[in-house]
Every structure is written in C-alpha cells, then in structure tokens.
Amino acid sequence: MAPRRTVYHVSPSGERAAAAGVKWQVEGREGRRVLHEPHRTQQQAIDSARRHAKEHTPAQIIVHARDGHVRTAYAYGLTLAVPPGERGRRTGKAGGVF
C-alpha cells in the first residue's frame, strides 16, 4: 500500500484575519497534527508550504486564487491529483480557465 500523501492548501484567509494584516494561510494535516499557519503574502505562504511538503513526502500543494479556484498545484514525490483539465475550475462548476 502506498503511503498517504500530505496535502497543503494555500488560500486567502477570512475577513477577520485580513483586517489584522494576515491575508494568506497554509492549511494541512501532517499525520495527526493539523497545520494552520497565517502569512502576510501569498509567496510567503507558498514558500512555507513547500518547506513542509519537502519534509513530508509524498505531498501536494494546492494554491488557490482569491476567488477560491485552484490556481496551480505542486507535487513532491507523486503525480498531481488535480488533472490539468481541472485546474482553474471552481469546485462543482464548469469553466473558469485561469
């Protein structure tokens, strides 16, 4: 049986956190540990998610845009779970090519 992959989501934070200057977050689950890290910029959040993903392979990073659709995905030690034709679509909705 293949090891379970760890998935990290880089997404915009809620309005309350944004008011405090935190605009992006990294969320994921590393075994039993739940990860939730606030960041001021999307690039800082992506860099943090990459560090975590490289430590916990196989892993995947899914980067969301401000409106919630999947902007891009990165894989470490496995193939991408988001097929290229599905990137840029909102969950459950057709269209939305980025």
Report on this structure.
The chain is built from two helices and five strands, in the order E-H-E-E-H-E-E. The chain has 98 residues and is an alpha+beta fold. The chain is globular. It starts with 5 loop residues before the first strand and ends in a 22-residue tail after the last strand. Residues 92-98 have low confidence and may be disordered.
Short description:
The chain has 98 residues and is α+β, with helices and mostly antiparallel strands.
Question: Which key phrases capture this entry?
Answer:
98 residues; alpha+beta; disordered C terminus; 2 helices; 5-stranded mixed β-sheet; globular
Element layout with pairings:
Layout: E1 6-12, H1 15-19, E2 24-30, E3 33-39, H2 42-55, E4 59-64, E5 70-76
Parallel strand pairs: 1-4
Antiparallel strand pairs: 1-2, 2-3, 4-5
Rg value: 14 Å
Q: SSE order in H/E notation?
A: EHEEHEE
**Helix/strand-derived class?**
alpha+beta
State the distance separating the first and last CA atoms.
Answer: 35 Å
